[in-house]
Amino acid sequence: MSNPIYKDPAAPTETRIKDLISRMTLDEKLGQMTQIERSVATSSVVKELCIGSILSCGGSGPFENATSADWADMVDLFQKSALESRLGIPVLYGIDGVHGNNNVFGATIFPHNVGLGATRDHDLVRTIGEVTAIEVRASGIHYDFAPCVAVCKDPRWGRCYESFSEDTDLVRKMTSIVKGLQGDPPEEYPKNYPFVAGRTNVVACAKHFVGDGGTENGVNEGNTVSSYEDLERIHMAPYFDCISQGVCTVMASYSSWNGTKLHESHYLLTQVLKEKLGFKGFVISDSEALDRLSHPYGSNYRKCVLSAINSGVDMVMVPLRYELYLEDLTHLVETGEIPMSRIDDAVERILRVKFVAGLFEHPLSDKSLIDFVGCKLHRDIAREAVRKSLVLLKNGKDPKKPFLPLDKCAKRILLAGAHADDLGYQCGGWTATWEGKSGRITKGTTILDAIKETVGDKTEVIYDQNPSSETLANQDFSFAIVVIGETPYVETMGDNSELTIPLNGNELISSIASRIPTLVVLISGRPLVLEPDVFEKIDAFVAAWLPGSEGGGITDVIFGDYEFEGRLPVTWFKRVKQLPMSAGEKNYDPLFPIGFGLKMKLVHNMS
Ligand code: GLC
Predict the structure, then answer these.
(1) CATH tag for 374-578 (out of 3.40.50.1700, 3.40.190.10, 3.30.110.40, 3.40.640.10)
(2) What superkingdom heads the lineage (predicted)?
(3) How would you class 341 by CB atoms within 10 Å of its CB: exposed for 0-12, middle for 13-18, buried for 19 or more?
(4) Is pLDDT above 50 for 605?
(5) pLDDT over threshold 70, residue 112
C-alpha cells in the first residue's frame, strides 16, 4: 500500500494536516492535546493514548548530572513508543531551556534574560538562540519553552530576571532570539505561519501570554489591571514580533487581566491572539494552570477543562493527572459542551507545528550534535554576552580618579563574598534544578577561577568569603573585590517586597570597604536597595545580573581587556516604597535611570 499523504514530506503541510486529521479517532485527537511530565510517561501510555507531548518540568531529567547523550537516549525511547502508535504521530518533547539548555550537565549557561537586555545586542541574542537550539536538540529535545517575553514592570516579581526589560521596545528587540531558536523564515514564507528551519532548531514558545510582568505589586500569577490599549501597547507588542517571526507556540499566563484568568479568556486567547494577530501555531497551557482556575485548587476540574479549551487553549500541560484530564475532556466533547470544531482546530494547530518542525521526517535525536554541547565556541559566545551585560554604576569616589580597570599585577588581592566562587549562585534559578542551587552544579568558570587565570603569577589572591577584621587589618591588600547578591530563586518563591542585599551583604561591604579600596560585583536577578552610606564607601560597583557559566566575562572587563558596554535594562530604584516606578511616569525618581551605564574610557586596544 502506498504511503499515506500525511507521511509524504513533499506534500503541502496543510494537505498533510487534513489527511492525518481525517484518519484520527476522537481518542487520538484528544491525546494530541495532552502534554504529560516524563515521570508519568510510560511506553504504553505514550503509545496507547497517542500523547501529543512530553515535558521535563524544571529539574526533571533521567538522573542527576545526566549528559546530553543520556537525555537523548531517554527522549528517543519515548519517541519510539509514539512511533509505534496506530498512526505513528511523533511526540514533541519540551523543556525550559531559558538560558541555554540549563537542565543538562555541561551545557553552556548564558546570562539570564535581564542580563541579555543590558547588552541591547539583538544579533548576539539571536546567536544565543541558535546555540541554545543546538544544545537542546543535542539532547534529543525538540521543543523549548522560551523565550519569556514578559515586560517586567515591578522588580518585586519573582520572575523579573526572565524578562529582558521593563521597556517594551527593548523586549521587542530581543525577540530576535526566536529567529535563533527556530531559524529565519525565507522571504516567500507565509506570514505568521509557524516555522522551524531544520534539525539544529527547536519549536519555540513565546510566554506568558499576556501581561505576566505587569501584575499588581509584582505578585507572581497575580492580576494585571489596565485598559486593553495599554495591555496591547505594553505587554502584547512583543508577541507581534514573535508571531511575525513564525513562533510555533504561545504559552498562556497563569496571571489575570482585570480579574479574568488568561487561561479562560476567550477574548485574549482566541479573538485577539488567533483571530486579530493571526497566530497559527498552538496555545499551550502552563503547568497545572487548569487546576489553578478553580478554588479550591483542582476542584470542579471538569469546568476548568471546559473553560480553558473553549477559550482557546490547544494543548494542556497537565502534566500529571492525565487520566482525569482525558476523562473530563472526552465527556465534554461527547456531550457537545466542547464542539468538535474546537478540537479539530486545536489538533490542526498541533499537527501543523509537528509537520513544520520536520518531526515526521526526523523524529529521533541526532547524536552528531553532542560534541557541540558546552564547546569552546559556545562558551566564548556566552562569555561575550557576560561582558556586554555588565553595567558599571560607580567608578571611583572621585570621578576624576577612576578605580577601574583593576591592576592584573597587583601585589595582593582580597576576594570576598559568597558569590565569588559559586557557579550555582552565578547561574541562578532554572539551572540544573528548577529553583537552582549553590555549588559546582555544572561545568563552568567561577569569578575566583577567572581571577586566578587573569592575574600575574606574582599576584597573591586571598579568597575569604567573610574575612575577619584581623585579616583585613593585618594584610596590606592592593584592593578588594566583594561579590555578593541573591541566592537562586524561581517563580513565586522569588516574589520579594524587601529587595535588600541578602546574606548580610551590606555589613560585609562596609567592613571591607572602610579599610580597603573595594570593587563590589552584584550577582542578582534585579536591582536591589543600595544603602547610601554603604554605597559611598565603595570605590566601584558593577551590576552583573545572573551571568551563567562563564565568569571569565566579568574579569575580562574589570581588569580592562574590554570596555563596559552594558546599560540598565530596568530602573534602579532608591527605595522599595517607590515601586512600581517606570520611566516616563511623573514619580520617576530613580537612583539610576533605565539606560544608565558608565564606561572606564579605556584608551589602549579596546577589543
Ligand atoms: C512553569 C512556568 C513556565 C514553564 C512551565 C514548564 O510553571 O510558569 O514558564 O515553561 O512551568 O516548566
Answers:
(1) 3.40.50.1700
(2) Eukaryota
(3) exposed
(4) no
(5) yes
Mean predicted confidence (pLDDT) in 98-120: 98
Contact between 429 and 435 (Cβ < 8 Å):
yes
Please state, in angstroms and rounded to a whole number, the distance separating the CA atoms of residues 493 and 7: 46
Q: Rounded CA gap, 531 and 325, in Å?
A: 51
Q: Whose CA is nearest to atom 7 of ligand 1?
A: 287
Instruction: Give 206's Cβ-side CA count (13 Å radius).
Output: 34
Number of H helices, E strands in the chain: 21, 17
Could you tell me if the CB of 287 is within 6 A of ligand 1? yes
Grid cell, residue 218, equals 509584582
CA of 237 to the centre of ligand 1 (A): 21
Query: Does the domain formed by 5-363 have CATH 3.50.30.50?
Result: no
Set of cell numbers at residue 605: 586596544
- Tell me how far apart the alpha carbons of residues 352 and 316 are, in angstroms, rounded to a whole number: 17
Ligand 1: does its nearest atom lie under 6 Å from the Cβ of 207?
yes
Report yes or no: 194 and 281 within 8 Å, Cβ to Cβ. Answer: yes
SS3 399: coil
pLDDT on residue 21: 98
Contact 68, 138 (CB under 8 A): yes
pLDDT reported for residue 297: 80
- 439 phi and psi, to 5 degrees? 105, -175
pLDDT at position 601: 83
pLDDT tens, 349-372?
999 999 999 999 999 999 999 999
57 lines ligand 1 (CB under 6 A): yes
pLDDT tens sequence across 190-204: 999 999 999 999 999
The rounded Å distance from CA 313 to ligand 1 centre is 15
Collapse the DSSP code of 556 into the 3-class scheme (helix H, G, I; strand E, B; otherwise coil) and give the result.
helix
Residue 381 and residue 537: Cα distance in Å, rounded?
Answer: 35
Quick check: 438 pLDDT over 80? yes
- Model pLDDT, residue 603: 59
Q: What pairing do the DSSP bridges indicate for beta strands 34-37 and 256-257?
A: unpaired
Question: Residue 58 C-alpha to ligand 1 middle, in angstroms?
Answer: 8
b/e per residue 26-62 (b: at least 16 CB within 10 A): eebbbbbbbbbbbeebeeebbbebbbbbbbbbbbebb
Confidence of residue 607 (pLDDT cuts 50, 70, 90): very low
* Percent of the chain's residues with pLDDT above 70: 99
Cα separation of 118 and 546, whole Å?
A: 11
Spell out the residues 6+ positions from residue 480 whose beta carbon is closer than 8 angstroms to its own.
413, 414, 415, 416, 512, 513, 516, 517, 518, 519
Q: Please give the pLDDT value at position 1.
A: 62
Domain ranges of the chain: 5-363, 374-578
Mean pLDDT value across the chain: 97
407 backbone φψ class: left, alpha, beta (φ>0; ψ -120 to 50): beta
